[in-house]
Design a protein that fits this description.
Elements lengths: L1 H4 L3 H22 L2 H16 L3 H17 L48 E5 L5 E3 L1 H6 L3 E8 L5 E11 H8 L7 E6 L5 E5 H4 L4 E7 L2 E2 L9 E4 L11 E7 L20
Parallel strand pairs: 1-10
Antiparallel strand pairs: 1-2, 3-4, 4-7, 5-6, 5-10, 7-8, 7-9
Helix pairs in contact: 2-3, 2-4, 3-4
Length: 264
Amino acid sequence: MVKLMALTYNTAWDWARGWVGVLTSCRRAQKGRVILDALTTLLHRVIQRRSFLALAAAGAVGLVGSCMGPSNSTAQPSQQATTVAPAGFEPTPKAIQDFQIETADGSTAVDLRSWKLRVSGLVSTPVSLDINQVLALPGVVQTSDFRCVEGWQVRGVKWEGIRIQTLLEPAGAKPEAKYVIFHTVQGVYADALSLEQARRPDVLLAYRANGSPLAEVQGFPLRLVVAPMYGYKSVKWVNGLELTDKPFKGYWEVRTYPVDAWRG
């Protein structure tokens, strides 16, 4: 299966033509021209969609096998790889005192077994990391106040996480990239910073607060912390950074909030 998935698109097309030849022999034996023509058309269309490798592994081989006779091997169900988080890295039961919790995302539960942090868009090398890989990156600790545009604040929060530049370096931001959009697991909330803002030393992606993993309602497993700006810029439940050349208005900014939310 590994060798099959390593085939290039052109090689896969030659491989498919070979199977069509086998099917032709089956047609002579079974006189099933209509079935053969339908299968050939299907293979051609699937190849055009670059889905041929999955079809060959799951379907076409099975069809040819039924024509050529039973196989002695037993098919094994595929299993999707899952991530096991480090012991003790789970949502803190209680949110930091004095934080007022607000969210536009609905459900806040995140399954670490399938969670990935992806860096995409205008980059040379897209990056995808599971939680263990994120926690293994060089970390920083930052103590800063958190202030909401509604007037409340929490002083002296100790955040632990990674700088944005730590993720951008292996991805390689293209010269035309000017902004970073921060996406969430739920896909509702999003916001952006300019690349210059995202690279500031007081901006980070945090996975711990005051010595413990984040609470679920405060963005577990990963949230943005933009210390010099109001809280709506500090996106929770981050699972993606997308580099773009165009300005982006976030969830509250399309509802008239300032794009640059510098605290006064």
